Amino acid sequence: MIIYRAKDYNDLSRKAANIISAQVIMKPNCVLGLATGSSPEGMYAQLVDWYNKGDLDFAKVKSVNLDEYRGLSRENEQSYYYFMHKHLFDKVNIDMNNTYLPNGLAEDPEEECRRYDALIESLGGVDLQLLGMGHNGHIGFNEPGDHYDKGTHCVDLQQSTIEANKRFFASEDEVPRQAYTMGIGTIMKAKKILVIVSGAEKAEILKEALYGPITPQVPASVLQMHSDVIVIADEAALSAIK
Ligand code: GLP
Questions:
Q1: 134: CA distance to ligand 1 center in Å?
Q2: Maximal C-alpha separation, the chain
Q3: Is the pTM of this model over 0.85?
Q4: From CA 6, how far away is CA 8, in angstroms rounded?
Q5: Per-residue pLDDT tens digits for 32-47
């Protein structure tokens, strides 16, 4: 595991964008596993900037997103589909037919999970998986629990996640109670993983994830078992680690 210390959020965003662009330059038809949340927003803005300057070409890139709220349509501004279009897909030359997210409105959740796993498999797996980290150590929407889920599944969001994510919604009542997420098994199968973590409020959980016991109670701790992980965190997020 390589841990890069970024000075601040801007530095973190640039460092993360550098790794994504290195992947795209080295393998133009790569499969990127993408993530949402506030952590990667600056990174996407940096990628768009480099694309506009002619330094990046997404024409052959394929992407699969980590997760999506269950029950939100694509038009809903809080859906991850909407987020990805707003921050990246509509601003670069990626082929929309090569971008994939779980369908939040799928009628049969089990069938949707099967479809998504088969899709990732058919793409040949993920070359580089981007991850943020929730305040409770979740990755994607793999919440703390007593076991790791292997494949894509539909989860009940924990109250702490609903609280953390309500800032994006008009009220807490509007936060969906369920979401689709890639499983820990799918995430761990990615050839390379990039984790970005920002802010002092994640310092303790980041320390636990990187140096504590490997346990489904801290889902991100499983990343200690992956052979090719890059963590980029700002000084505030690294403040609990000596
Ligand atoms: C959300 C998402 C995760 C994200 C995490 C952290 O609930 N499902 O994929 O990494 O929580 O979000 P943020 O970066 O906004 O702190």
A1: 5
A2: 48
A3: yes
A4: 6
A5: 999 999 999 999 999 9
pLDDT of residue 78 exceeding 90, the answer is: yes
CB of 68 shorter than 6 A to ligand 1: no
Catalytic machinery residues: 67, 136, 138, 143
* CB 134 near ligand 1, within 6 Å: yes
Q: How far is CA 48 from the centre of its chain?
A: 18
- From residue 39, give the alpha-carbon distance in Å to each of 130, 144, 228: 11, 20, 21
Residue ID of nearest Cα to ligand 1 atom 3: 140
Where are the extended beta strands (E) located within 48-167?
A: 62-65, 67-69, 99-100, 128-131, 153-156
Paired with 100 in beta bridges are 64
Residue that has been written with the tokens 């970024």 in this structure: 6
* Cα of 164 from ligand 1 centre, angstroms: 9
Q: Which amino acid is at 75?
A: E
CA distance 50 to 25: 12
In this structure, which residue's CA is closest to atom 9 in ligand 1?
140
Residue 236 pLDDT: 98
**Distance of CA 36 from the midpoint of ligand 1 (Å):** 6
Does 165 sit in the ligand 1 pocket, CB within 6 Å?
A: yes
Tens digit of each residue's pLDDT (9 = 90 or more) over 157-195 = 999 899 989 999 999 999 999 999 999 999 999 999 999
